[in-house]
Design a protein that fits this description.
globular; 167 residues; alpha/beta; 14% strand
């Protein structure tokens, strides 16, 4: 199968099948240590910032949040979450929803609110303006780097890359 979600799903299913047949965990079969890992709790985009803050406040066992944003009141949304969870570490995922001008305006404010990274702020194919730009906090490419052949270009524009199993 070509790279992508279908191949990833088939691969995961085969690992799961072998694990069940042998009684050995996939971790052990792969030779991977089972040290604790950190993951994020995603807060989806809600109609109102307060709804997003309520979700963050309810996730008392989580400390790292990935907050979905668009161009509707992004700073207000993060401020509401920050008020609800002063202890939380925050990253945001814009899913290609901003212009370069909005990124330049909003990023410094998000940094002041303790956001540590912005994922895919601009549309894939419209992010060449990031070359030479020094953002106030790291930018992470996602849709702009779908395979290894795009890595060099993405590295000129982003400080991080979101690597998914199906990429």
């Amino acid at each position: 199968l070509p790279h992508g979600g279908a191949r990833n799903a088939a691969d995961a299913a085969l690992w799961d099948l072998e694990s069940k047949l042998t009684g050995e965990s996939a971790w052990a079969m792969a030779g991977v240590a089972t040290d604790p890992i950190e993951t994020v709790f995603t807060i989806g985009l809600e109609a109102e910032p307060e709804e997003m803050a309520t979700k963050a406040a309810a996730a008392t066992d989580m400390i790292l949040f990935k907050v979905k944003l668009n161009n509707d009141r992004p700073v207000e949304r993060i401020a509401a979450i920050r008020d609800a969870r002063a202890d939380a570490r925050l990253v945001v995922d814009v899913n290609e929803g901003w212009t370069f001008e909005q990124l330049q305006e909003v990023a410094p404010q998000l940094k002041q609110l303790g956001v540590s990274m912005i994922e895919q702020p601009l549309r894939r194919g419209e992010d060449e303006v990031l070359e030479g730009y020094t953002p106030p906090l790291p930018l992470c490419g996602d849709e702009s780097c779908l395979h290894l052949g795009e890595l060099d270009q993405a590295a000129e524009r982003y400080q991080m890359i979101n690597i998914k199993l199906d990429k």
